[in-house]
Every structure is written in C-alpha cells, then in structure tokens.
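Researcher: Here's a chain I'd like modeled. Treat it as a single chain, no partners, no ligands.
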Amino acid sequence: MDQIFVTLKSGILDQLGRFLPDWALVVHSVLISITAIAILGPVTMMYLTLLERKVVGRMQNRPGPNRVGKWGVLQPIADGIKMLTKEDIVPLRADGVLHFLAPVLIVMPALLVFAVIPFGRNMTPVNLNIGFLYFIAVSSTSAIPIFMASWGSRNKYALLGGMRVIAQMISYEVPMVLAAVPVLMLTGSLSTNDIVTAQSGWGGLQWFALTPWGFAGFIIFFLCGVAECNRSPFDLAEAESEIIAGFHTEYSGMKFALFYMAEFMNSFTVSAICTTLFLGGWQGPGFLPSWLWFFLKTYSLIFVMIWFRGTLPRFRIDQLMGLAWKLLLPMTLANILIAGFWHFTHGWIKIAGSIALVIASYEGLVRLNQRYTPEKRVYTFAE
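Model: Modeled as a single isolated chain. Structure tokens:
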C-alpha cells in the first residue's frame, strides 16, 4: 500500500519526462506538491470541523450535525457555501488594507508548514535538513496577521483580543521550542525525516514519548501547541463573555472562514509535528501502512484537543501566563538536563534516575508556585 503512494508522483514525472525538458519537469514536480498541499489543507479543515461538532455533541448527549448528507458528512460543504454567499461587512472606520490582508495572510503559514510534515515513509513533500526550524520560523509568523486584524478593525474588543493572542503566543512559543531541544540533541538533526527514523527500533515502537524525558517533553510540547492554536482551555483571546470574539470580532463571511480554517489547520499541524517528534511519526508495527499509522496518531491528539474543549473551563489570564513562565519554562530547562543524564548513563540508573528527576522537578516547581497566594479581591459596586 505504501509503495502505491510513494511511486505515484514519480510515475507521473517519469511519463512527463519523456517529452518535457528538465526545467519544465522541475516546475511540474513543484506544482504537483503545491496542488496536493493546497487540497489537503482545506479538506482537512472542513472535516475537522465536522469531527469536532460530532465529538462535542456526543460528550454533551446530542447528535451533532446529521441532516446534510448521510450522517451529516456533507455539512462542511454546506457551511462553505454559506460562508461564500454571506455578506462581507467592513466597519466604516476600519483600515481597509489591513482588514483585507489579515485573513489572507493567516492562512499562508498554516499551509506552508504542511511542506515538512512526513505523512509516511518517503512521503514528505519537501525533505529539508532544517525541517523543524522551518516549522518554528513559519508558524511564528501567524502572530503578525492576528495583530493586523485586531489593529485594522478599529475596535477596542478586537484590539484587546489581539493583544491577548500576541502575549499568549510569545509566552508559549518559548517552552514549546525548548521542549523539543532534547529530541534534537539526541537525534543530532533538525530534519523531520531523521527524527522519525531515529525512533525506528523495537519494531517501530521506540518512541521518544516512552522515555521519562520524552514523556515530559511530549506533554509540554502538546500543551504549548494547544495554546498556540488558541484552543480551550487557552482560548481566552476569544472569550465571548468578555471581548465578544477577540481579534476577529469585525469579520464576517469568507474572511471569518479563513480565520476558522487557519485555526483548524494549525491544530492538525501541531498534532502532526508532535507525532513526528515524540510518537515515532509514521513508525509502527508493519501490519498497517506507514501513512495510516501517522494519521491515527495525529487524529488521536486532535481528539484530545476536542476532549479539552468539551470538559475544561477557560483559564484566567494570570493562570494562563503563570503556567507558561512559572511551570512549563523551568520544566523544559530541567528536562534538557534530564535528557543529558539519560544519554550519558546506563542500566537501571539511567531509567530510575531519569524518572526520579522528572518527578522531583515537577513536584519542586509545583510546591514553589504554591507558596504564592494571591490577595483576595475586593469589588466596589457603583450605587
């Protein structure tokens, strides 16, 4: 099964190479990759919305979408048609250029990150030797269109939501990158393919998440990824009860749909990179194709994100920022040292010592943070 997908693109190019010059062959190769990514991104977003509505509906004891098509499978298409036909309303005082460009630009990083994701054995669209660095660099640019949307809307609620997003993304990007440092140290490579290959032992089950330092890094990276996507319980930037809808308050129609699409595509890419770094990527026992292993792991993490939304309330802003700076950041620094201990020791000392260090680091940070007791708030009501 893997061989069919691996040879499909090369077979097409072989046929074209019989009558096309070399430069045209390169152009066709690039166009095939771009077309595949451009189709996969929106389709992934469309059916992630259906998956989330179905799963949350089940958690809340209701059916979810079930009218458009059998089991509601055509609901995303109906939603897309609705978004395309809705009126595009632009506030009179808004900056027209920024208001238009923001939803367009926010989709671009979400699509570009797909280029370095290893979807299966020999199924990476672009095998960069700095693949993880590319992911961090491209995904961090999504803060710019968010700020453009909030500032260009000329709305105080949108601006407040945009400032929250910027503060949150900067705060959680730091521990997110540091959580991946032990993986990069022990594999000696920034290539996403090399990272997956390094986890090929034990019949495809030598995942980094099964080590003490890898498990800690996996939890931290995944939580930071959820925060980066502005998903519950980290969606304070879109709190309807406080700031209406955050940075995209003044957007409607297809412009709003582009923000929505970027959020769901980011959820997929974060889960995919987390799978690549800590869960062996496409590695697994040989009874399933490699691409199927990859999607099973990725969608399992997406299910956990949806589970968070259906069960957890939002953090307060002080809890949100405190979690990043007071717990996750120092824990990632300790985890780098633990990974070094794991690498340079052997036998039972290696396993027991690493587990003890992870537990001691976590417990120590929790106890340290519990020493601070916030003052009781006193509210003064107007008469």
